Amino acid sequence: MARRGIDSITLEVLWSRLVAIAEESAGEIIRTAFSTTIRESRNFALVLLDTKGFLIAQAVSTMPSFIGAIPITARELLKIFKPNEIKEGDLILTNDPWLGTGQLQDLTSLSPIFYKNKLVAFVGITTHVTDVGGKLRSPEVREIYEEGVQIPPCKFFSEGKIDKSLLQIIRQNVRLPNQIEGDILSHRAASQIASNRISEMLEEYKLEHLEVVSSIILQRSENTVRDAIKKIPDGEYRFQTLTDGYSEPLIIRVEVRVRGSSILIDFTGSSPQVDRGLNAVFNFVYAYAAYTIKCLFFPDIPNNDGNFRPISVSAPDGSILNPRYPAAVNGRSMVGHFIPSVIFGALHNAVPELVQAASGSPSWSLNAAGTTLDGKPFAGNYFFHGGQGASAKNDGQSCMSFPSNTSNTPIEILEHMVPLLVEKKSSIRDSGGSGKYRGGNGQQVVVKSLSETPILLTFISERTKHPAYGLFGGKNGRAGKITYNGRPINPKKQLVLAQGDRLIMEIPSGGGYGDPRERSTQLIENDIRNGVLSIEKSRKEYGTSGNLTNSDL
């Protein structure tokens, strides 16, 4: 029989065990997935859910947006597939942006875990694959039908047997069928690991199910979160920011309403949805809004659905943060990644010691398709990140993805997968916004085509017109830009690269925090020695270079 109560020590052991199981299962995805976006950039998430679809534990080093969205997706899938219709060995799959994480390239699966012939949990996985057919990922698209193959909720595996007809439909509609098939099969491999480990844990602790463990974890987390929110002064806090948009800027407005132990985040007043791939579906927006509150007030609590209970999010129907089908959504990060910075902006006077200045990301990526030097087709996404915003106690990190948590694509991987020569990849000195604590620097990436055949390129990029803001006297970061053969180009449009063509990407930097004149001399000197800051800028914006001169360098 299941235990009616669990003591605190045992609960902590079980909780840690669940996190470890999720982490081990995520490792299986890294080992078995085919796409570089998954293996190298860690663009995926794996979570463990209870039988009702509520998040219990997550793999640690995975995507915040996916973690927040997967439980929502799971609960919607469980409305379609009733408990008596779900069998051991099933794997339910979809890439529906409105059910999932907001774009067709994100494949989400739900796999049941059975113990002694009873359903005890689910494994939820989202992976960002490199290609789903359609037009190469670009904000130029006008509706979702251009973006690739749509997979409605279906059983990709049914009692352990693959749906060969569905697999063939997917393979027929993508550029790299073997790669996509391998990515989907990695879901299966990871789910099997999780199922085995959960069964072993239940057997070891003489438990029949996870209901008691889940209930206690969620309730304790909720209580802790509510206690943290109570420390925020009640009130309405507002902010707005501009994104580059496509042909004209888009507005993101937010009002954060704090009442006791609850928070409502309302995006009323944000721009209407647009006929380009810049719309962010509500699940994606909710995930990043909840993630922001977690970063601010309870960063050390392991993620689970208890964290989300005190947080409500709303966005106008038909807006860029809650678009109607069949809106184009494949560039949703170019809007959705602004969610943390706009919430930080709203709360900067309420909790100045906790917020950070705006970051240079939304994450940038180079999307490429063509033919390799040995005649094989390729298509892939390759990530390059800007500078993080500074905070009240720390400089922003350089060349780091915030808030997406993806890794920069290594040069070796890019050159191996695409016939491009990386001539330079370096941090951009002086780009971070000045402040008592400075923003992180962006990076410059210079590539040249080696291909005798054309390479089709598109970009996921932002902050080329509206740089990351600074706070409390901190300076703005530096805007980004892309140069093609020496001339600036519109990064929202497709580009065809011929042999010998050169591309320079300058990724934006983060904003500074506090008056630059209050920065310590020691930090200034360290930045100069490390090549982060020039003596010229240190004297101009900080008023000193310490005891250093150009002859010292």
What does this protein structure show overall?
The chain has 553 residues and is α+β, with helices and mostly antiparallel strands. It has two domains: 8-222, no CATH class; 356-548, no CATH class. It has helices at residues 8-32, 36-39, 64-80, 164-172, 177-204, 211-229, 282-297, 305-308, 333-336, 339-347, 411-417, 521-529, 535-542, and strands spanning 44-49, 55-58, 91-94, 106-115, 118-128, 154-158, 161-162, 235-243, 250-259, 262-266, 311-314, 364-371, 377-384, 420-427, 443-449, 455-460, 481-484, 487-488, 495-497, 502-506. A seven-stranded antiparallel sheet has the order 2-1-5-4-3-6-7, with helices on both faces. A hairpin with a 2-residue loop joins strand 4 (106-115) and strand 5 (118-128).
Q: Secondary structure elements and their pairing?
A:
Blueprint: H1 8-32, H2 36-39, E1 44-49, E2 55-58, H3 64-80, E3 91-94, E4 106-115, E5 118-128, E6 154-158, E7 161-162, H4 164-172, H5 177-204, H6 211-229, E8 235-243, E9 250-259, E10 262-266, H7 282-297, H8 305-308, E11 311-314, H9 333-336, H10 339-347, E12 364-371, E13 377-384, H11 411-417, E14 420-427, E15 443-449, E16 455-460, E17 481-484, E18 487-488, E19 495-497, E20 502-506, H12 521-529, H13 535-542
Parallel strand pairs: 10-11
Antiparallel strand pairs: 1-2, 1-5, 3-4, 3-6, 4-5, 6-7, 8-9, 9-10, 12-13, 12-16, 14-15, 15-20, 16-19, 17-18, 17-20
Helix pairs in contact: 1-5, 3-7, 4-5, 7-10
